[in-house]
Amino acid sequence: MEPIKVGLLGLGVVGGGTWNVLRRNAEEIGRRAGRQIEIVRVAVRDVAKARAKVGADVQITDDAFEVVRDPQIDIVVELIGGVTLARELLLEAIAHGKHVVTANKALLAMHGTEIFEAASRKGVMITFEAAVAGGIPIIKAIREGLTANRIEWVAGIINGTTNYILSEMRTNKLTFAQALQQAQQLGYAEADPTADIQGIDAAQKLTLLASMAFGIPVQFSKAYIEGITQLSDEDLETAQYLGYRIKLLGITRRRAQGIELRVHPTLVPANSILANVEDAMNAVLVNGDAVGQTLYYGKGAGEEPTASAVVADLIDVTRLHTADPGQRVPHLAFQPDAMADIPILPIDEVVSSYYLRMMVDDVPGVLADIARELSNAGISIGSMIQQPSEQGYARLVFLTHSAQEQAVNRAIASIESMPFMRSQVTRLRVEEF
Amino acid sequence: MEPIKVGLLGLGVVGGGTWNVLRRNAEEIGRRAGRQIEIVRVAVRDVAKARAKVGADVQITDDAFEVVRDPQIDIVVELIGGVTLARELLLEAIAHGKHVVTANKALLAMHGTEIFEAASRKGVMITFEAAVAGGIPIIKAIREGLTANRIEWVAGIINGTTNYILSEMRTNKLTFAQALQQAQQLGYAEADPTADIQGIDAAQKLTLLASMAFGIPVQFSKAYIEGITQLSDEDLETAQYLGYRIKLLGITRRRAQGIELRVHPTLVPANSILANVEDAMNAVLVNGDAVGQTLYYGKGAGEEPTASAVVADLIDVTRLHTADPGQRVPHLAFQPDAMADIPILPIDEVVSSYYLRMMVDDVPGVLADIARELSNAGISIGSMIQQPSEQGYARLVFLTHSAQEQAVNRAIASIESMPFMRSQVTRLRVEEF
């Protein structure tokens, strides 16, 4: 059979990895796919640089639109990133009947509805395994492996940069700034680390996972996002003392009133499996009503781990590109006409356990006043520690049972107005799973 | 669209779970699959008992051959187990053009070649996600999620019964007999636990994983199998003292000379992710050249976890039952005409690290003699501990670097013939991954 013809947009880290993996494993891939997969055309900014990599049998252009319109091309692989040009290119590729493989989480989180609708109308596939958790086949697990289940929640470490930073802060006692600098030196963090450390990258991925878990539209704008920049060494140490570790988790959970969709630093029990995912590794825990908890672990980024997902998608598309659309897995796991309009809950309505840390005057009655305030707000205390501090102050840390966030925030406001308070209340969420 | 019609053979633990999950999640499954999946006929030994469960709209028979020959049925789900009748039923179902979903690892490990060939000739699918690691979609991960990779090795805890026993022995200091009895009381072990504790069940699953990882025929008879019945509390404790835990692992690895295919108790570092898979949980670690290590974790057995895999297969078959065979994933991940004839290595040629424990007279020169014998056999020592014992004996434990098993066995034979030996040498394999 003729090789299937691929146009590659972008020959950076992931594009280069995709090129390398396809070539190195061509024989093995052919044995699996039953057909060769050939990159016939590449669009890059620097044509000369690309020429040094890909050799003379591949056409190179600096105009990506030439590639997405090229009649010989069956599948377009979009690895240029960004949301403006990439969106135009994807829509143009779809309009020309191309199937698309992409790693672009930002684009799909923001413009997924438009793109998937266009693809469905045209009868082409958009695959995006590489957009979430690198080489871990988590999208395949949720879209296909766990289809028997009513999925209850998904919780994951889906940003390797922040997991690396938190691991280094905890195990090597680095400050946030030191750990970030080290992550940049190792290539785990970009020169502008904003999207990682602010939780935006994790929220984009979580938005896609939530959509596939619950059959809801992609709604990035409704995600609650809190990064790790405000975390103090003190909280990391206190968490450890209490038997927890702090991880930046993406959590999406089905509740009676709607769907929780939130990214924030989270205390998880130190002996739990998520707590032990260290360095730049990713892991996603999925809870289904039939299967219970399953976990998917691996490298969430990097040249070849991400290329592994891109090439797996290429093989899936190669198998199914001539199939009826009904024989393909729906883009977002549920049939387009069966998507549900379940609301995303605002963060105020989220239910979690909480870690509350504060500094108070070390005088009688303080504990009673705070405990009464929490009790009045309907918040039950799971455990508490008091530690003496300098200057006659005491450090209090409460771990609460499950409570609604707005009740906790109201209680915090009341507590902060009490006369014996010597700090604001640091509030972190706690999940036991 | 008309519901797809399923004939169910067996309504025991997994059959009952499949019935329950399909009914409870019918709406969710329909939203995903785009089509209802309906069990129209059930074959059981006890018709009256089944009638109480399935209601009047389902035909019940005690002749499973009626079901596999029933023209109205599209998919046969085989959950009766065993290898004799089940083999005949599967071949008959295939001959009648039925697709088959099965959880029968023993059958596929022993008769897979015959069954897959028959299915390929007839153009029907045999799916078996439930045959390995229960609800964990590990077969989908290897057959589809990691297709870009040249897989180097797979190592897994794929028998929950033995993992539960080893966890209890370690954490609660039970003897093997006590832990087995407890596993039986909890329903984790069967009345006849032979297939679990002897490693046979794990080897059947590993045989299937190896075939899909490397594109080789299913060859259960060539697997090396060693169970956990000979493990002593002393070795569990010594392993822990050395920073290891003992797990029953299935390991299959590609080497230049062939494929290793082996199930045996294995020391793994206590802080490694596999070491921390406790109780009856399963986990499979896969190493691919592009993606690196990925791990898949969850419940490896039980009514609904296993049903989760059966129903996911039903949904896959529902999507693809009218597709061209070329649009389906090959049964064993590689195209039938591209299977490789790589030999399975005999256990003598396996390469591993080793734990060697022995009791010796506590006299000068013993250590030098043993070290020289190991060195003569080309075996390098990684670490050693000596502990005094009663009666003037000393207990020696060596951890070796990688060595070929036959060299280790020869060295052990020489050491055991030395005059100062007061025990045989206990030999366990060690893997660091």
Automatic annotation (TrEMBL), chains A, B:
One of its GO terms (molecular function) is NADP binding. The active site is at K205. Its EC number is 1.1.1.3. One of its GO terms (biological process) is methionine biosynthetic process. InterPro entries: ACT-like_dom_sf (IPR045865), ACT_dom (IPR002912), Asp/hSer_DH_NAD-bd (IPR005106), HDH (IPR016204), HDH_cat (IPR001342), HDH_CS (IPR019811), NAD(P)-bd_dom_sf (IPR036291). PROSITE patterns: ACT, HOMOSER_DHGENASE. Keywords: Amino-acid biosynthesis, Methionine biosynthesis, NADP, Oxidoreductase, Threonine biosynthesis. NADPH binds at K105. Residues 355-430 form the ACT domain. It is an enzyme of class 1 (oxidoreductase). Pathway: Amino-acid biosynthesis; L-methionine biosynthesis via de novo pathway; L-homoserine from L-aspartate: step 3/3; Amino-acid biosynthesis; L-threonine biosynthesis; L-threonine from L-aspartate: step 3/5. Coiled coil: none annotated. L-homoserine binds at E190. Pfam families: ACT, Homoserine_dh, NAD_binding_3. NADP(+) binds at L9, G10, L11, G12, V13, V14, G15, G16. Belongs to the homoserine dehydrogenase family. This is Homoserine dehydrogenase.
